[in-house]
Please model this.
Amino acid sequence: MASLTVRQLDDRLKKLLRLRAARSGRSVEDEVRTILRDAAEEGGSRAADLIEPPASPTKRGAAVSRPAAPAGAKRVLLVIGGGIAAYKSLDLIRRLKERGISVRCILTKAAEQFVTPLSASALLGERVFTDLFDLSGEFDIGHIRLARETDLIVVAPATADLMAKLAGGHADDLATTVLLATTAKILLAPAMNPRMWANKATQRNLAQLIADGIALVGPNEGEMAEALERGLGRMAEPLEIASAIEKLLSVQPMQLLQGRRVLVTSGPTHEPIDPVRYIANRSSGKQGHAIAEAAAAAGADVTLVSGPVNVTHPPGVKVVEVETAREMLQAVESALPVDVAIFAAAVADWRVANAGVQKLKKQAGKATPELSLVENPDILATIAKRKMQRPRLVIGFAAETENINANARAKLASKGCDWILANDVSPQSGVMGGDCNTITVRASGVEAWKPQSKDEVAATLITRIADALRGSK
Ligand SMILES: Cc1cc2nc3c(=O)[nH]c(=O)nc-3n(C[C@H](O)[C@H](O)[C@H](O)COP(=O)(O)O)c2cc1C
Model:
């Protein structure tokens, strides 16, 4: 291996090295080692490039210029803790930058075992902060400035350890010192093994943190990184965290569906028995209407085909009111072409074949009238299987009272739609007519969403749709 001593370098380079070393508080030899290590890491690592190539060359610890955040942009300081979910926080950086939010980032020592400062700084376009006693860091931006120059501190993943330290007021590293020194709002996205989450100590710390006014997003229920483990402890998805951040910062939600046409069906259908009676179901229209409202708020051009409902139609959407399944299909077909069709209506499977033209009358001595049923058109399958003007994304709901997963799987396969959102509508679930919903999304994979309000389901769905459409015009 070639050897080179500092003495062999030219005078100008030696002078520059001495200056750099003095500024960072290192010996000249250590400074050279640092420069070489950084250069080798940068050349050898492709991790950051796999996520997204940096806009400009960035070096670990180098003070590169911040990309111009929009004037008045909200500022988030992201603390990445040492958990497996740390990789998701790299995606969170992207999500926040997409939303025009300016982001600074601290990695805990443990976090550096899961993601590299290089990956994070490549996404940030600026250095990340790791050390409390970093002389070069203290030189241009100290921990007190990090704590003050932010509108919100987000800890994701919030490890059991960080939660304990925060609840106890510890300050033994950069992350905890900044958390203790800040007056900004703090949002935690906890992530840990379900047993760590359920542990009395963690729950005690959680109660303390909530009492201290700290906000939380997640954790969610689901598969853990450890094989065969399931339960409560998964970190909320980056989009969920981004939307919690938007709420806390009171920023306008991003116009995620600007320029897209979205069709939503909502509510029940009424299938006449005679001119005054009908067969209906308990659908309130709350979920479909919430989706239409969220799509409109995200900038989409929305047509809402609504069955008879008592909820108010959302502002800023084109509403087509219908009564029967056949009318609904007609209205849906007239609204095409659209980019996305979301079929949230509870459409009657059958209608009365022999509906009375006049009101059916009780007549003494006459037999009770028999209703004969005939199948209604399948709106979801009809649209999903269209050859012409098929929406890019066709999304159905599976309202089930039993075997929810098996029925949703079968429905996805038989209807030809892209996603099925399955929900339990059995009376004990309180979903029909209620304000909350628990959704499992089935597409190429399965994703269980935590129980949430129908408005939150709508917001989550819109971000997922925007994600799926991203890049397609
Ligand atoms: C492979 C591995 C995965 C870990 N995942 C988590 C995790 O998801 N959540 C957590 O609270 N701790 C997790 N830990 C433990 C933390 O890394 C450990 O408590 C560490 O001290 C946290 O440091 P920090 O809170 O300063 O980031 C994990 C440890 C290892 C070795």
About this structure: Residues 43-68 have pLDDT under 50 and may be disordered.
